[in-house]
Specification:
The chain is α/β, with parallel strands linked by helices. The protein is built from ten helices and eight strands.
């Protein structure tokens, strides 16, 4: 099946539930992304800053670029002019840097707090108490150029569906708690970014509003790393 056919299948399935489809385009060429764009996709997710910067310069301006990977504070400045949503905010320090760079560009950048839900030490994310502490902090209260619009989580890489359900449900319950405590009057706090190709159906059932799907749309990823033609911001 073509990229257009794959997209049609996923968009009809996912968007019927009011869920946003993020096409994970890491390692894909600009030409491949343009094929998906021409098939109607507008939201693309990248996990490497240097790739996203280069692709953004080559592709249509109305694309929504989401940074879905782990983000280092010293790289925020490269994506601050255009990034639509940063999914993996896992520290106050990173949030402060995003706020600083957004101010320079006279923007408000939307962010998701990444919450640690997996039974794996390799995953990033804030513990529940750390997220609450961040939201209660004076430093957070002072930030005017970021907007927290929800939470992001990555489930354990396992075939045990029961465990995945529990982890996604845990995130939804925590989201509801934060909504009631900190964002009761903010309609913008509405996103839960969970679910990838292997577990997106479970994620949607457990309250996800965004799913991140890559290889199932684009086909097998190119092993060779995407070649960056602009100045390398790494």
């Amino acid at each position: 099946m073509s990229i257009a056919d794959n997209l049609k299948q996923y968009k009809s399935e996912v968007e019927a539930d009011g869920v946003k489809l993020i096409a994970v385009s890491k390692t894909q060429s600009a030409e491949t992304i343009l094929e998906a764009y021409e098939a109607g996709q507008r939201i693309f997710g990248e996990n490497m800053v240097q790739e996203m910067v280069d692709k953004q310069a080559q592709l249509p301006e109305d694309i929504e670029w989401h940074l879905i990977g782990h983000l280092q504070s010293n790289k925020v400045k490269y994506i601050a002019p255009f990034v639509r949503l940063i999914h993996g905010v896992d520290s106050l320090k990173l949030l402060q840097e995003i706020n600083k760079q957004a101010l320079k560009h006279k923007r408000v950048i939307d962010c998701l707090l990444q919450i640690y839900i997996a039974d794996e030490e390799t995953k990033f994310g804030l513990a529940h108490d750390e997220a609450i502490e961040l939201l209660r902090s004076a430093e957070y209260a002072e930030m005017k150029n970021i907007r927290i619009t929800g939470l992001m989580g990555i489930a354990t890489n396992t075939k045990n569906e029961k465990q995945i359900i529990i982890e996604f449900n845990e995130l939804k319950v925590f989201f509801d708690g934060l909504k009631a405590s900190f964002f009761k009057n903010e309609d913008s706090f509405k996103e839960i970014s969970t679910g990838m190709s292997a577990d997106y159906k479970i994620a949607i059932e457990e309250g996800s509003t965004m799913v991140r799907i890559g290889s199932s749309i684009f086909g097998k990823r190119i092993i060779k790393h995407f070649k960056n033609t602009s100045e390398n911001p790494s």
